[in-house]
Amino acid sequence: MRVGVGSRNPVKISAVEAVFDGLETTPERISIESVAIDSGVAEQPFGEAETIKGAENRARRSVSEYDIGIGLEGGVAEVPGSDGLYLIMWAAVTDGEMVGRGAGPRLQLPDSVARRIRDGEELGPVMDDLLGESDVAKKQGAAGALTGGIIDRQEALEHAVAGALAPFVTEFY
């Protein structure tokens, strides 16, 4: 089975590989390939709908040459019933017909970070600035920094991918 992941981000690719490595049954050899795909949404998706759309666009645009296309998108959103702005993650999986969707954890952003995002900055560069590092999004991610390493971006994305893959690996859907 050939799996196309609509991203060149190594953390996203590693998350997909980890999920497939964890499958209890694998019907055949799996080849996972990274594909440069435009999400079709803003560089900093805002809200659940835009973040989901980015993940779905990446999955649909990568499936044309593969058996399964996977898209992952990180965004920020306000969560009803809660104050502040949250980091969110969504994944979509498609075989060209069926689409599965799954979400990762939601992590409240510190007020200083949320203000900068609301002022138009992207989370990745804001976290780089805050941590004095570069390419945080390709390493621990905001998830790792905000949880003191309890989880990192890869682990958070793995949950989203596993949820999106569920309709393809069980008969419950």
Assembly type: single chain
CATH fold call: Maf protein
**Domains (count):** 1
Distance between the termini: 21 Å
Element string (H = helix, E = strand): EHEHEEEEHHHH
Structural class: alpha/beta
Query: Which overall shape is indicated by the principal axes computed on the Cα atoms?
Result: globular
As a whole number of angstroms, the C-alpha radius of gyration is: 16 Å
What's the helix count? 6
Rounded mean pLDDT score: 93
- Helical amount: 25-40%
CATH class placement: Alpha Beta
Unreliable sequence segments: none
* Second rung of CATH, namely the architecture: Alpha-Beta Complex
Number of strands: 6
Could you give a short account of the major beta sheet? 6 strands, mixed
Percent strand equals: 15-25%
Tell me what the structure shows.
With 173 residues, the chain is an alpha/beta fold. It has one domain: Alpha-Beta Complex (Maf protein), CATH 3.90.950.10. It is 39% helix and 20% strand. Strands 1, 2, 3, 4, 5 and 6 form a 6-stranded mixed β-sheet that branches. Helix 1 links the parallel strand 1 (2-5) and strand 2 (31-34). The longest helix has 17 residues, at 153-169.
